[in-house]
Amino acid sequence: MTLKHVLAIAVYFLVLGLGAGNRLGYPQEIVSAASWELFVTTPPTQTEQSNVLGTATTWGETILPLLPDMTLAHVNKTNALPTSYVPVGLAQIEGSLAIGIQYLRADVLPYFYQLVGAASEAGYNLLALSAYRSYATQAATFNYWVSQSGYSAAAAGSARPGHSEHQLGTTVDLALQQNREFAYFTTSSAAGWVAHNAHRFGFVVSYPQGKQAITGYIWEPWHVRWVGVELAKNLHQQELTLEEYLSSL
């Protein structure tokens, strides 16, 4: 990892830590928001804004249909969530285990707490640095990285709005209490512990090391997504990425 990447990650942490990525207020105020003004890198045409569920847009991406259970929604660089999608049942993560106000789906919270508890027993004090993000928040986040690093570099480490697993409410970026920077987490033994133990609680590292050609994203040892204990264990045993599994369905 180059010094430029380390500095970029540090700045990203600073932005999130100051609350730029988590302007959520209170649970009852969480509403869908789609503002193309935030996504200024490529202003879409009227046709591109249509978001017809299950069809391809003029960008070549597919807007995923809404299902009763979106846990295994195949969100990636070509499949997008609708701009208006907000998961049902978001609940706030306990304040001592999160940086700022963070939300996950209520049914995922117990598994997150189990993960954090097991990590603590192993000597790692984990925190939720960033969990649920709305479409509009992801647009602002992605646009920030484009302004800092250019489109190609930004796309390697940040999802375009609609393409972020964080919008599902089942995904969380982890950090360590003693040093909350991603660069520190990456070089710490906590990254290895998460990679080898997250599956016990239903989480997978979505973008593991050495899999960029498959996932489209750089290694993010802090980025975990809940998919259920049984599937997470199977993927871990078979050494498969979530992207490979979902692509095979």
UniProtKB/TrEMBL annotation:
Q: Which CDD domains match?
A: LD-carboxypeptidase
Signal peptide range in chain numbering: none
At the top level, the lineage of the source is: Bacteria
**A GO BP entry:** proteolysis
MF terms from GO for this chain are:
carboxypeptidase activity
List the InterPro entries: DD-CPase-like, VanY-like_core_dom, VanY/YodJ_core_dom, Zn_M74/Hedgehog-like
**Name of one Pfam family that matches:** VanY
Which positions fall inside the D-alanyl-D-alanine carboxypeptidase-like core domain? 103-228
Q: Please verify whether the record's keywords include DNA-binding.
A: no
Q: What keywords is this UniProt entry annotated with?
A: Carboxypeptidase, Hydrolase, Protease
Under SUPFAM superfamilies, the record lists:
Hedgehog/DD-peptidase
Q: What is this protein called?
A: D-alanyl-D-alanine carboxypeptidase family protein
UniProt organism field:
candidate division WWE3 bacterium
